[in-house]
Request: fold
Amino acid sequence: MFYFFIWGCCIISDKTRINDKIKGKEFRIISFDGEQLGIMSAEQALDLAISKGYDLVEIAPGATPPVCKIMDYNKYKYEQTRKLKEAKKNQKQIVVKEIKVTARIDSHDLETKLNQVTKFLEKENKVKVTLVLFGREKMNNSLGVDTLDEIAEKFTETAEVEKKYADKQKHLILSPKKK
Reply:
């Protein structure tokens, strides 16, 4: 965000024009209370805004005549940034956790991995289960695909399963079911 200060006039973005930067002859003016003051010339509106100690801000440039509001522009921008921060705070970020399994994984090791997957799903994270094949396992990959199918079968009730068995990478994505 760039700030340019020119004798009581500041432009914060190219979209919003204030004070002397507003182009036009007549405007529909709204007071800082929200009351409509009617249609005025540019000079009258700017004089009224400056006399009250506020800025003249163009709200709807496409309207005929353009709509301008008398307000404290710095306070308005501050409130807008606060609203954006609050909205960002309330957003939920999707986290993808990855667990790698091999074709020759032992049953106890598989149970441990499945317990991790259930913990991740309870925290409402997505889980990517990747199959890692070594050496000659790549030639006979059906054992590894069976392991992935077994994992997918265990989580069909608690998660949505998306299988992706491409040529080189084989994985499945588990996302928690929406309530």
